[in-house]
Amino acid sequence: MDPILPYPSPLFLSLILLVITRGISGATFTFINRCDYTVWPGILGNTQLGSTGFELPPDRSAALQGPPGWSGRFWGRTGCNFDANSGVGTCATGDCGSNQVECNGAGAIPPATLAEFTLGSGSLQDFYDVSLVDGYNLPMIVEAISGSGVCGATGCIADLNQRCPAELQVDGGQACRSACEAFGSPEYCCSGAYSTPNTCQPSVYSQIFKSACPRSYSYAYDDATSTFTCTSADYTITFCPSLTSQKSSSYSSTPTTGTPTSVSPVTNISTINGSGSGSGSMDNQTANSWSPSFIAGDSSKAISRFSTHSTLITTLVTLLTFSFHCL
């Protein structure tokens, strides 16, 4: 007689669902504005996330869903003024040149603090960083939520506009340019004869950024202390994080878990700007022009990415075997 298999247990079904959804759901990006002024996040990626820019008032949060394999960057625009009727306007810092709230496939005009991500698929790790290579305009931290791995917090809490050398200041201190943007010299831009890790070294200006924000990229080859990884996580991007807040106090090597606290309910971005139907598309050449080396597949970043899903699969096999033995 053929064996009669028992019905799968709820735990068994839950584990199957977890394996499937982790492979297809990507990550949720939650934006939190702790500044005492409105920030207009800008978004640029290899595919559109439903919005390419929106308004985020103080003490408000909003969320976007990123699919597996998504590569892109987020930044905060400040001092924006958009006409209530036409929607046309510009921003004092981080402007994307679209003259609209939506950036529509345009990137940040330096200087701007950038949060950069490449999401893995299935069991593959995510890579993320906060970059000051294009300068700085406001404090920002990135934190991984409920992921596996080191999943360290990264970013820049310090107000670099207050420490910015006079020759790098923009409009009396609204933002701080990089030395590359300010002077255009190959040694500052890591270009020409200085386009390799051996020839491009930290400058006195990048060291100012690194001293204030040791976990952020300060120049093009600042990989060792500035690139972070996590598996199957969601992420919070916080503008102007408080030094005394619960979340920013986790700005250490300790992985963070849980959900954002003390903020307004998370808003789906599509309810802010409608359907987010801006073009937002880029060809491969445009997308790769700003991608850091780990996005382009630098072999030095080819880290093993199978720990979480291997554990889940092993658990599933064990439960399946146990079910057959119980017949």
UniProtKB/TrEMBL annotation:
It holds the Pfam family Thaumatin. Keywords: Signal. Residues 244-267 have a biased composition (Low complexity). Residues 1-26 form the signal peptide. The keyword Signal applies. It comes from the Eukaryota. InterPro entries: Osmotin/thaumatin-like_sf, Thaumatin. Residues 244-285 are annotated as: Disordered. This is Uncharacterized protein. It comes from Rhododendron simsii.
